[in-house]
Amino acid sequence: xxxxxxxxxxxxxIESGSTTCVELVGNYLSVIESKKDLNAFLEVWDVEARERxxxxxxxxxxxxxxxxAGAVIAxxxxxxxxxxxxxxxxxxxxxxxxxxxxxxxxRLYDAxxxxxxxxxxxxxxxxxxxxxxxxxxxxxxxxxxxxxxxxSGGSAVAVAAGMCHAALGSDTGGSIRQPAAFNGIFGLxxxxxRISRWGLLAYASSFDQIGPMTHSLEDCALLTSIMSGADGQxxxxxxxxxxxxxxxxxxxxxxxxxKLRFAVMKQAVEHEGIDPEVAESFKxxxxxxxxxxxxxxYFDFPLLxxxxxxxxxxTTAEASxxxxxxxGMMYGFRSQNATDLESTYVLSRSEGFGPEVKRxxxxxxxxxxxxxxxxxxxxxxxxxxxIQNETLKTLESADAILIPTTSTPAFKLGEKSKDPVSMxxxxxxxxxxxxxxxxxxxxxxxxxxSGLPMGxxxxxxxxxxxxxxxxxxxxxxFSK
Length: 480
Ligand code: GLN
Prior knowledge:
Strand order of the largest sheet: 1-3-2-4-6-5-10-11-9-7-8
Bound molecules: glutamine
Number of domains: 1
Shape: globular
Helix content: 25-40%
Distance between the termini: 25 Å
CATH class: Alpha Beta
Radius of gyration: 21 Å
């Protein structure tokens, strides 16, 4: 099958008669079948996807199709889609079916996207390797002995391995960008409040954002535009209309910024934990950008060591509150061993949640407890504000912050799973954007000698999602 990088190419191919939605869906389904071992999907909506494809083919013929006709999309298993199961890769939601559709999902549907299935992820989106899924780990699309990243690992692998055209992920601390980098695709965490969280199963509500995972910047921009815009169901959103669709032709030179200013965190090039191949290719990129007339400035970010601790105090606190609703009473799983109300709560939660989720609920409950609140939660809130201010300050004198998305390429399955702290450090470069609310994108830039992809991350000011696409398009010229 010809592989398409952009939805617009698919659409032209359908309109010229060289393929159909039915054929595309059939092809994706056979790739899903042949690459079952990667464990990317928890459920494939084959019959439904084929039927919908036939409908969309008719709409295209009739000239009434929406902008996403031809796009076959997978959903991370933490988004509500009415009448379909959603489990957040947890046993605690066993058998649960969504009773409404997430706003972001509905907007894609209304634009005529075809949904092909729901993808595996870390349980409750907590993880950086997909090894925390109750349904087994996903395997990296480039090397099945390596992790796909997390938590949206199933979505990243589904796209990278050709099982669908694009996918949705969610990003609380890097869960779109890190697996995108590990699988050689694009992944965007939009400005906080750009895309409605209504229908996204909450992990840490003041951090969570839905975003696209795609083969091209154009598709990333198209899907973001379609999902964006205020929604009465999510009061934390930017009260703005849908953002326009970014076009490559509007990018860098055309927009008049021939000399771009990139701010690079000193520690990101000097940190001893950075893999030499990541450091080397990143330095080459910086010198290429300088040669092309752009400006690179280095800034010191003494807060680096506080990012991951602040993130884990605040997100676990929010998670302990958000996950209190899974009590065995209303949703999904209820323990068969319970005898009364209290044992229903205790046993359903003990049997239903996996170890990482339990660890985070306990940590979050601890930092919120009355005698620890000031020492942890309140302090972390203050640190978050300082991080926000410092991030904004850096961006006053730069167009974007530029940094490798991850300090290493995809690591081996099992390599970090016994050591939560080393796993948490996999989030070192991604959590800043969630703590501060800025948009950030991972773009596929390089490969290691052994062929593993590496990504570069750009971050602009909150609200500057379109500018982020402009800058990415310029940086991409130097990909190798
Ligand atoms: N790896 C991070 C964590 O474990 C990020 C998760 C996410 O963005 N959902 O929390």
